[in-house]
């Protein structure tokens, strides 16, 4: 129950549950989300060592925890990325998306390394298209390259997470069919509030980005915080929370069709 009204279900579309520093308290976090009425959590990965933990969670919380497989944004270990791509191809039946992948020009300044990370990102876009899986994208200061790559190597179903680019870049990503997942930092970020107002309702998703992007600087994010995001969106957009939760749930199933087949 949120604000006294029943909501049909909320899904956290982006949480790093299999990350080494989260995994130690993962059962507690997942049970909190179950108890809080969430309908599901999509785990995203960035390293090869997360893959077995990710599959373990999918097995242990069948129908509640789903996983995508991805690789460190701005990473340039072609061998590691290749290994993860191979597993994603072989175990496509177990995953609901490709991600988190992308480019990060705040983290990667070197021109050559940027080129390598672009090369790897293009491979992920191509793989997502091949496997017909949604691509979960991270981008910081690299939106123009992301847009160019998606335009050239797409179309691919895509979700942009914690978007921090400008208005015209957001419009381009919308034209490319992207969904946008809104993190708990909406509680403290004017940029995220402006973004939410700019986007059409049918492209909004919820994410916690556990353990990053919490509602306050001192509190690590947890999947339960997507309820705060929903509340904030409802207030900000002046849409009834029950109606909004239904719209976002429909968006989530459209963006991640394999969730509804479980
Ligand atoms: Zn993330």
Please give a structural write-up:
With 262 residues, the protein is an alpha/beta fold. The protein has a single domain (10-259), classed as Metal-dependent hydrolases (TIM Barrel, Alpha-Beta Barrel). The chain has helices at 20-23, 26-35, 50-60, 78-90, 111-131, 143-153, 167-175, 190-198, 226-237, 241-255, and strands at 10-15, 38-43, 65-69, 97-104, 135-140, 158-161, 179-182, 204-206. An eight-stranded parallel β-sheet has the order 1-2-3-4-5-6-7-8, with helices on both faces. Strand 3 (65-69), helix 4 (78-90) and strand 4 form a beta-alpha-beta unit. Helix 4 (78-90) runs parallel beside helix 5 (111-131) and helix 5 (111-131) packs parallel to helix 6. The relative contact order is 0.16. Residues 14, 16, 44, 100, 161, 209 line the site of zinc ion (ZN). The site of zinc ion (ZN) has 6 residues, from loops.
CATH topology: TIM Barrel
- Overall body shape: globular
Task: Measure the end-to-end span.
Answer: 25 Å
Average of the residue pLDDT scores: 93
Question: What ligands does this structure carry?
Answer: zinc ion
CATH superfamily: Metal-dependent hydrolases
Radius of gyration: 17 Å
Helix and strand content put the structural class at: alpha/beta
CATH class: Alpha Beta
Helix content: 40-55%
Detail the poorly predicted runs.
none
DSSP summary, beta strand count: 8
Question: SSE string, helix = H, strand = E?
Answer: EHHEHEHEHEHEHEHEHH
In CATH, the architecture is Alpha-Beta Barrel
As laid out across the biggest beta sheet, the strand order is 1-2-3-4-5-6-7-8
- Counting DSSP H or I runs of 4 or more residues, the number of helices is 10
Biggest sheet record: 8 strands, parallel
């Amino acid at each position: 129950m949120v604000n006294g009204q029943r909501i049909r279900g909320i899904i956290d579309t982006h949480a790093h549950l299999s990350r080494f520093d989260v995994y130690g308290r993962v059962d507690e976090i997942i049970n909190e989300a179950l108890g809080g009425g969430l309908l599901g959590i999509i785990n995203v990965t960035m390293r090869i060592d997360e893959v077995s933990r990710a599959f373990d969670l999918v097995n242990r919380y069948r129908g509640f925890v789903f996983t995508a497989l991805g690789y460190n944004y701005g990473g340039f270990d072609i061998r590691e990325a290749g290994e993860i791509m191979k597993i994603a191809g072989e175990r496509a039946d177990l995953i609901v998306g490709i991600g988190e992948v992308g480019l990060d020009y705040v983290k990667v300044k070197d021109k050559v390394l940027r080129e390598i990370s672009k090369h790897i990102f293009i491979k992920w876009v191509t793989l997502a298209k091949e496997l017909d899986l949604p691509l979960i994208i991270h981008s910081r200061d690299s939106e123009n390259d992301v847009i160019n790559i998606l335009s050239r190597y797409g179309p691919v179903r895509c979700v942009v997470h914690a978007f921090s680019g400008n208005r015209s870049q957001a419009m381009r990503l919308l034209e490319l069919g992207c969904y946008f997942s809104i993190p708990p930092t909406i509680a403290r970020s004017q940029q995220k509030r402006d973004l939410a107002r700019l986007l059409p309702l049918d492209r909004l998703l919820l994410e916690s980005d556990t353990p990053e992007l919490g509602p306050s600087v001192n509190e690590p994010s947890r999947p339960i915080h997507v309820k705060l995001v929903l509340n904030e969106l409802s207030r900000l957009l002046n849409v009834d929370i029950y109606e909004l939760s239904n719209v976002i749930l429909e968006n989530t199933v459209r963006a991640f069709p394999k969730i509804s087949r479980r």
